[in-house]
Write a structure and sequence with these properties.
39% of the residues lie in helices and 31% in strands. It is of the alpha+beta class. The chain has a four-stranded antiparallel β-sheet with strand order 1-2-3-4, with helices on one face.
Length: 109
């Protein structure tokens, strides 16, 4: 049976950290990074905090300013020493509401 990504992530992360450490120590780290990486995308994350303490909740909106596209929306709910998050599905009723909120009230250009 194949392991899930959640079961494999820690080993993969450890391997990637070793790779990044080698890049930093290279004679030309920028060139080494360019050889290793597929791309670098700059995005902005907006955090709309609604409450704090216990419980607290907020939305995050990840936005690509180059193509002016909203990439993802997440809802976070936290209570003392516990937390959960949900991705808001693209083209859902919830996405449509939050996308309108983002462009009309948060991203003011």
């Amino acid at each position: 049976m194949n392991k899930t990504c959640n079961e494999r992530i820690d080993l993969n992360l450890e391997s990637r950290i070793k790779d990044m450490k080698k890049i930093i120590k290279a004679e030309n780290p920028i060139e080494e990074l360019n050889n290793e990486a597929l791309s670098l995308t700059k995005t902005e994350v907006y955090k709309l905090e609604l409450s704090w303490g216990g419980p607290s909740d907020y939305f995050t909106f990840e936005y690509n300013p180059e193509n002016k596209e909203l990439i993802s929306i997440e809802y976070h709910f936290l209570d003392w020493f516990d937390g959960a998050k949900r991705n808001i599905p693209y083209n859902s009723r919830e996405w449509d509401i939050l996308e309108e909120l983002f462009y009309n009230c948060i991203l003011i250009e």
